[in-house]
Amino acid sequence: MNLTIFKSVTRAWIDAPDQQIDEPWETLVAMFGEHQAIQNKEDGLMFNLVKFKSIGDSTAELGRTKEYINKEWTGEYIYKPNTVRRCKANVIGIDGIVLDVDNSLSIEEIIDELQDLEFFLYTTFNHTYDRHKFRVIIPFSRMLLKEDIAGREADIISVFPGVDQSSFSVSQSFYFHSGLNDPIVYHNRGEILDPYIFKYTAPPVPIPVTFAPASMDDEVAERYRKAVVESLLSCNNVRYRGDKQGGILTLVSICRSVGLEFEEFDSIAQRIGGADSTMQQADKRLSAWQDWRGDRISRNKRDQFIADYGGRAIALNKMPKKSISIKGNYYQEQIAQEIAILENEIMRRKQNG
Known about the structure:
353 residues, five-stranded antiparallel sheet
């Protein structure tokens, strides 16, 4: 059974072979039961039940950190050789699911509900006797391959109601057992779950985007991402819950829609959040990122968010005029539409002299 260990939320990559472990379930149970005596949750190690591509795989996306100049993020990344980034593109398959239960069910209720299944339960850092916060690890009898995950996700979620939906994100990672208040572990012996018993529903087939004669390449997509980041960084006094403008969850969706990771979102959120806003609390920013699964947002809603918080419009005129090929990523249709608007404006100005 595969287990991958990460040193922190921000070190979202594999850089050593011993981070990826393949051991029998009983061995992993012993690991999950070890209590980390830490004072801050962020000091703990993290894991998921994902098998990723190997270090040195030429198809693997590399780990990356932000590039700073004078303490300001340039919008660019420094890529780390001989690493594998924790992201969907590098997933091979998963060997189980991890349910993150945050006071929606009690420990007794979940044990009763899952009594026939094999699972391991442990309390998390903020668990208390009165407010149950815990994690349930359910192993699979065989690996659920990457290409089979999306089609079964809806049925898996329907079987496990009342849990945090971010539990089902394939590249999500989780802290090991920790916390100073009433720490609890529980191993339930039962039937090991076969992931292929869940109903398969074919995911929607992406509609190819045609934009002749141009096509979009990686350079254009990267410039588009950078333009969005620059506009976000020009916003100010963003509120955690927002109002008509949208709050931190809207910001999460915008950041994810252009492929940003937690460290980029966290830096942006802290910088543009109001001085007295909950967005200045690191744990709240982390919870928003982990708990919200939205990774798409309409162009109108995104632009309205930026405008409502005083941000500059996305400067698409910085995009190079060159041949583009659409690869079908979820945000590329928006890119094509916005390039079309830009080119129409350029044509209009030429006609008007």
